[in-house]
Amino acid sequence: MKKAFLFVVTCGILIFASCDSGVKNSVKTRKYKSLHEEAVALALPDSEVASFPEKYKAQRAASVILTEYVEQKDSSFYLTISREDAKELGVDGDLYDNVVKDLDNTNNAIKEMNKKGQKIDLPDLEEIKKAARGKRGATK
Fold first, then answer.
1. 72 — alpha (psi -120 to 50), left (phi > 0) or beta?
2. Predicted model pTM
3. How confident is the model over 67-119, as pLDDT tens digits?
4. What backbone phi and psi angles, to 5 degrees, belong to 48?
5. Read out DSSP for 16-72?
6. Are 103 and 77 within 8 A, CB to CB?
7. Staple 28 to which of 2, 58, 99, 109, CB 3.0 to 4.6 Å?
8. How far apart are CA 52 and CA 27, in angstroms?
9. How far is residue 51's CA from residue 48's CA, in Å, rounded to a whole number?
10. How large is the angle between the packed helices 125-136 and 54-67, nearest 10 degrees?
11. Terminal C-alpha separation, the chain
12. How many angstroms separate the CA atoms of 28 and 62, rounded?
């Protein structure tokens, strides 16, 4: 009887342990060693980390990671990294999907403005990436 109970408990533990999101070092569960390390991950000055809403931190961290993989063709923005490859970087699938959705919304807004003949000044993507990299190194 004890062996059967231990077997059931062990199986339960193994099943529970294997039911993670499949994301290594997920930004949702990542623990930072210092406030500065968290600031770098969020591309924020150290002084803004404490006041940044907790519920948006994982999405912000995912967006910062994925910034390096945003490209532009004509007037459209897209990601050059797959959902699976993003998981390897710690970006959960739902966070990846949110970034894709944001890019789709941006692309749709650009299309609408083009249809209406409104002038659009698209940002320089390399400058945005450079600024994000700089903020990741910011301290204050």
1. beta
2. 0.76
3. 999 999 988 999 999 999 999 999 999 999 999 999 999 999 999 999 999 98
4. -100, -10
5. HHH-S-S-TT-TTT---SSHHHHHHHHT--HHHHTTS-HHHHHHHHHHHHHHTTEEE
6. yes
7. 58
8. 15
9. 6
10. 120
11. 61
12. 9
- The single residue listed with the structure tokens 């890019």 is 103
| In contact, 44 and 52? CB cutoff 8 Å | yes
**Could you give the CA distance from residue 64 to residue 34 in angstroms, rounded to a whole number?**
18
The residue to which tokens 């692309």 are assigned = 107
The DSSP 8-state label assigned to residue 119 in this structure reads -
C-alpha span between 88 and 26 (Å, rounded)? 9
Q: What count of Cα atoms within 13 Å lies in the side-chain half-sphere of residue 8?
A: 5
Tokens of 98: 């949110």
Q: In this structure, which amino acid lies at residue 82?
A: S
User: pLDDT by residue (tens digit) across 12-46?
Assistant: 333 333 334 557 789 999 999 999 999 999 999 99
Residue-wise burial string across 59-75, b where 16 or more C-beta atoms lie within 10 A, e elsewhere: bbbbbbbbbebbeeeee
CB atoms under 10 Å from CB of 127, counted, come to 9
Residue 51 DSSP class: T
